[in-house]
Amino acid sequence: MSTRIIAVANMKGGVAKTTTSINLAACLAEMGKTALVVDLDPQANATSGLGIDPRALEGSIYEILLEDLSFEDCVEGTSVKGLFILPSTPDLGGAEVELATAYGREHRLSRALEPHIDDYDYIFIDCPPSLGLLTVNALTIATEILIPIQCEYFALEGLGQLLENMDLIRQHINPNLELGHILLVMFNSSTNLSKQVEDEVREKFGDKVCKQMIPRSVSLAEAPKTGQPITKYKPSSRGAVAYKAAAKEILAAELNGEATAQDEQDETEETITPEKENKTEIAGVDLDDSIDSINEENRDAANNTTEAIDVEPTENNSMIEAKTSSEDSTNEIKESEEEPAKNSGRFKRWRINREEG
Ligand SMILES: Nc1ncnc2c1ncn2[C@@H]1O[C@H](COP(=O)(O)OP(=O)(O)OP(=O)(O)O)[C@@H](O)[C@H]1O
Ligand SMILES: [Mg+2]
Q: How is 84-127 classified by DSSP, letter by letter?
């Protein structure tokens, strides 16, 4: 299979580009694929969300783009086997200006990635919330764009401009670029607004829109502070199940829609439908909203520990069960004891540690 390079883009901010990049890549890695997340945002949220401190880095995407540092010197392993990250730092904030006058400015990322593409099944590029040169670099090498759309007001704002840019880049720079998927995120089944946005987006974009939607979920918002994807932080939470199902849909697309019968069956079983999601609503109360306050109380009670709680739907819908899960919510990311991939920065540290100790 040839590598799919997916630019996760939307010029609107805070619409789960990073959350989607991290979690889809992690789900695919857990399914046995090799995945790389390229953090192309100076906010470095994908970097910290995967447990790497941007301030402690010796090499990052900034040096790759502007100082010709090698890919091998920057790539890092993560707590998920088969998942790697090309990290970012706030230095990247200057890159838009510095790239503006640089030679081959649109191709900097593709030149750096090209020799390594075949090492991965999937590359997710987490784009910043703008259509500047960094995003153009992502679209120059991507094979497809994945657009997360938040089920809120102004959801489609800026989308026209992104699609126009996509067309321009396809015409002039990268003929392989396609609109891959649209993923509806932060879906809240207790509001008509979410449903209206869903209907509007499905009407406009048809089967480009993933059947699976990502619900609004406290666990998804909490996971980045632990440096883990949702599948590690809360593997059975609604957010984890939803991202796994979305990853399967994206995986199935590469078989040209000819997903195996088993895949289709799994997909049906795992899709979180609004009906299933309604189980978390009792007497019109959206539990996800109320979980926030339960969490606050729980944290206070636990003397400001990082213990977190998640509320899962119960069989008979008659009561809310709040369960604590302190093992899952640890802030510490332990380095994997296994041998990391040979080309990762972590491999170098792992080898030094082994030689020293
Ligand atoms: N399904 C969800 N439910 C609840 N919170 C979510 C969900 N998805 C993302 N979030 C939270 O929403 C915020 C914005 O998400 P995220 O950082 O992924 O968006 P972004 O598009 O990458 O933002 P930016 O444009 O700033 O890069 C984060 O705090 C994230 O934890
Ligand atoms: Mg982001």
A: EEE---GGGGGHHHHHHTSTTGGGHHHHHHGGGGGG-SEEEEE-
